[in-house]
Amino acid sequence: MMNSHENCMKYSPGVLLGNWYEDMRVREDKVKFYRNQTCASGDMQATAASDASCITDNTCLGEWGDVVILGQPLQLINVASEAALALDPKWPLSYTSPHQCLVTAADTARPQIRTTWVLHKANDEDNIAYKEQLKEGDILHFGQHIRIANEDSHPGGFFYLHSSIRDLGHVGSQPLIASQGACKDNIFVVAKPGERRVDIRGVGPVHIGEPFVLYHAATSQPARCTMKPQKTSLGFKLEVNCSFAGDNFSRSIAAVTNHPENLFVIGTETRRARTNLTVASLRSRTERCEWNATSMSCGSGLDILMSRIRQGALHFGGRLGFRVVSKALKAACREQRTTLVDRQKLLSSFRLMGVTIQPIDLDVIYKRFDHDGNGLICAQEFLRALREDMPPNRLSAVVTAFQKLTVEGGGSVDYRDMLNMFKHNATHHPDVSDGTLTCERVISEFVNCWPDMNDTTTVTLDDFVAYYTDISPAIESHERFAVMLENCWRIPETDDYKRGLSQTAGSLVCSNDAAQTVSRG
User: Fold this and answer.
1) CA 431 to CA 480: how far, in whole Å?
2) β-strands 235-242, 174-180: how paired?
3) Residue 179 near residue 159, CB atoms below 8 Å
4) How far apart are CA 204 and CA 133, in angstroms?
5) Where in the chain is CATH 2.80.10.50?
6) CA angle, corner 88, sides to 85 and 94, nearest 5?
7) Contacts 24+ apart (CB under 8 A), 430-436
8) pLDDT tens-digit map of 345-399
9) 392-498: CATH number
10) Are 425 and 503 within 8 A, CB to CB?
11) What mean pLDDT value characterizes the chain?
12) Ranges for the EF-hand domain (predicted)?
């Protein structure tokens, strides 16, 4: 009899019970794979903390060969280490102020808040002609002065890459940190590898994945990842500073560099990110912020901020609306000229209106409206964005009213004649008719809204429209707005109004004892 146990098929245990043994091994493999993935993406933190620091699914890093756009979130990857510049606001440094923090190079598996930077324009005082050559204002070019900001790491404002000579013992190597507040020590120059920092003859755009050097503008030292370990709040990362890799160079020498430690690229992946099966996408910024702050100077964040300022301006201006704000910024009426406003002036105007503005709000405003990176914005442009345009029906009524004033078709009207006509018709102003204001008060407010005007100046259609665009938001009713225009700019039958007298109402008693109300100039 053949032994029934010879040459039998070797089944794994439990084969007759649904192969539960294989199922258990598969589950163990999945758990082991999950643990490996968690360790690879954590930066020595828990998985939940790592996920909380991830960025966004609406913004991508761009494809290889695309030009680099200013004002967009991106990663700065060092060529030698393939690690991204990262912010560490929790790690104290003995030589920094409370508004400064550590910057390292981190090999993260996914883009994070601390590794996401935004390039801002900076003013180049030594080469004004270069700015005129740039036809594409939102594209990064070689030779351009920029600031590199982390916009979302702290509610107190943007953190800018910052470098300066610490003392005489560190002239060859400067610390590269992050600092709040824009200044000359956080301006860098983008240069091609192997070319001098001052050589800007190429004036070509920077493409995603194309290596470049970041020279500190004030000291001509290039940013560098030294490949040395640096202790941080998240464990050991790579040290970064401003120095030349290899030989030491004097600041007086127009040194060049093409060492990988001094080279950076934009938009590529870190070494760890390439080991993952999928490329990380950027998550919504509003979901990851623990504070109620504006994250970017575009989109809904800026809209919410401008809406808050707009409400404060209308509350402060009352019946005169944005005209009072225009006067505070010294930009009333004459919108064709350019009035530059610095941060302190704008902040004082906001405080006067009772609007609470945080430093990060000012950063957002100046990122949007400071086109040259010199710390100044055009008051007229800011006011146009703040007050918005009039509804079409109101604009049409304003144009019609102005056309009545320009009876000779010259396109402008004398300010003296316009003021005299307003005085003549002031008694018919809706606020006077309702008893809200006196005739003298209405005239006084109108005069105060036209600063720098005298008997020899003229008012154009743009000036006239600008005035009513300022006061339009303060008048909710379209009918009341139309009545105000009709009554205030009613053409008198005679030229008596040019004497500057307002109409006054009186009573005339006739022989039949009937009282009749008349108006006299």
Assistant:
1) 10
2) antiparallel
3) yes
4) 11
5) 56-274
6) 115
7) 430/480, 430/483, 430/484, 430/487, 431/319
8) 888 877 777 777 777 888 888 888 888 778 888 888 888 788 777 888 999 999 9
9) 1.10.238.10
10) yes
11) 73
12) 357-392
- The position carrying tokens 């989109």 is 299
Structure tokens at 48: 């939940």
Residue 264 near residue 76 (C-beta atoms within 8 A): yes
User: What single-letter amino acid sits at 513?
Assistant: D
To which H or E segment does residue 401 belong?
Answer: helix 392-405
R_g of the chain, CA atoms, integer Å: 33
β-pair type (73-74, 235-242): unpaired
Instruction: Provide the pairing of β-strand 100-106 with 235-242.
Output: antiparallel
Largest CA distance in the chain: 151
Reading the block at residue 297, the tokens are: 């100077």
pLDDT at 47: 35
Give the span between the Cα atoms of 74 and 87, in whole angstroms: 14
Three-class DSSP category at 324:
helix
- Please say whether the beta carbons of 225 and 80 come within 8 A: yes
Per-residue DSSP letters for 332-391? SS-TTS--EE-HHHHHHHHHHTT----HHHHHHHHHHH-SSSSS-EEHHHHHHHHH-PPP
Averaged pLDDT, 487-500: 73
CA atoms of 280 and 54, how far apart (whole Å):
9
- CA 319, CA 326: separation in Å to the nearest integer? 14
Residues 472 and 474: their CA atoms lie apart, in Å, by 5
Q: Looking at the chain, how many residues does it have?
A: 521
Neighbours of 169 (CB within 10 A): 8
Rounded (10°) CA dihedral 16, 22, 27, 30? -160
Kindly report the number of other CB atoms within 10 A of residue 519's CB atom: 11
Q: Are 223 and 240 in contact (CB under 8 A)?
A: yes
Of 105-119, 129-143, 274-288, where does the model show the most confidence?
105-119
Q: In degrees to the nearest 10, what's the CA dihedral of 340, 159, 86, 39?
A: -130
The yes/no answer on whether domain 299-387 falls in CATH 1.10.238.10 is: yes
293 touches 354 (CB < 8 A): no
The answer, yes or no, to whether residue 517 has pLDDT greater than 60, is no
- What is the rounded distance in angstroms from the CA atom of residue 243 to the CA atom of residue 247? 10
Could you please state the CATH topology (level 3) that the domain comprising 56-274 is classified under.
Answer: Trefoil (Acidic Fibroblast Growth Factor, subunit A) (2.80.10)
Residues of the chain with CATH 1.10.238.10: 299-387, 392-498
Residue written as token pair 């902040």: 347
Q: What is the dihedral of CA 359, 364, 370, 373, to 10 degrees?
A: 70
Return the minimum-mean-pLDDT range out of 17-26, 44-53, 500-509.
44-53
Q: pLDDT > 70: what percent of the chain?
A: 63
Instruction: Report the 10 Å Cβ neighbour count for 95.
Output: 10
Question: What does the DSSP 8-state code read for residue 487?
Answer: H
Side chain identity, residue 196: R
